[in-house]
From TrEMBL:
UniProt protein name: RNA polymerase sigma-70 factor, ECF subfamily
Keyword Acetylation attached: no
RNA polymerase sigma factor 70 region 4 type domain location: 141-192
PANTHER family per UniProt: RNA POLYMERASE ECF-TYPE SIGMA FACTO, RNA POLYMERASE SIGMA FACTOR HI_1459-RELATED
NCBIfam families (UniProt xref): sigma70-ECF
Family assignment from sequence similarity: Belongs to the sigma-70 factor family. ECF subfamily.
Organism in which the protein naturally occurs: Rhodococcoides kyotonense
Domain of life of the organism encoding this protein: Bacteria
């Protein structure tokens, strides 16, 4: 278990979350491989939200995103003992969820994007209705432009610009060289720049 202390204050889900936040990935992996479900739950809590955001942005379907992320974590639980640390745990998990997204796209026709790639701000601090309308219009235009990108370009752009990953990490996730990643990003940025030119 993550924490064998018998102190009453150490028990409960909140304590688990606090303790797990301080545990290195490698320790969580080692414990999970031995069957420690608390350790694996800590991995899910650590990386699940980012994986869900990335998947939802690709599929534009919250329900499908939840299903795909769940499938990815099932695969991670079954395959964790084969994780050799050639990449970070986060990169490996994103690789799994990316493959599950591809599987999902093969099984179903993808509906037009309806969700926002970025969360809409609840309000503009300036309180200026005209500025709020302009911001909403920009986000709608950006989301529409992203939805029209080829899948690999959109994936690379989201991993880089939203998830903050390096070219090497993206290459590991998408099984391509860093140079190929740069090419995908350049094409995505060129297309987005042209589509968003009216907002400059």
């Amino acid at each position: 278990m993550l924490d064998d202390r018998e102190d009453d204050d150490a028990g409960g889900p909140e304590s688990l979350r606090r303790g797990a936040a301080e545990v290195p990935d490698q320790s969580l992996i080692a414990a999970a491989v031995l069957g420690d479900r608390d350790a694996f739950e800590a991995i899910v809590m650590r990386y699940g939200p980012d994986m869900y955001r990335f998947t939802r942005n690709l599929l534009s379907d919250s329900g499908a995103a939840e299903e795909v992320v769940q499938d990815a974590f099932v695969a991670a639980w079954k395959g964790l003992e084969n994780f050799r640390g050639a990449s970070s745990l986060r990169t490996w998990l994103f690789s799994l969820v990316t493959h599950k997204v591809v599987d999902h796209r093969r099984r179903r026709a993808i509906a037009p994007a309806e969700d926002w790639v970025f969360e809409r701000p609840d309000h503009d601090p300036s309180g200026d209705p005209e500025r709020q309308a302009a911001s909403s219009g920009f986000m709608a235009a950006l989301d529409a432009a992203l939805s029209e990108l080829p899948y690999r370009q959109r994936s690379a752009w989201l991993l880089r610009e939203v998830e903050g990953m390096t070219h090497v990490e993206i290459g590991q996730i998408m099984t391509m060289s860093p140079g190929a990643v740069r090419g995908q990003l350049q094409r995505a940025r060129t297309t987005l720049s042209a589509r968003m030119s009216t907002w400059r």
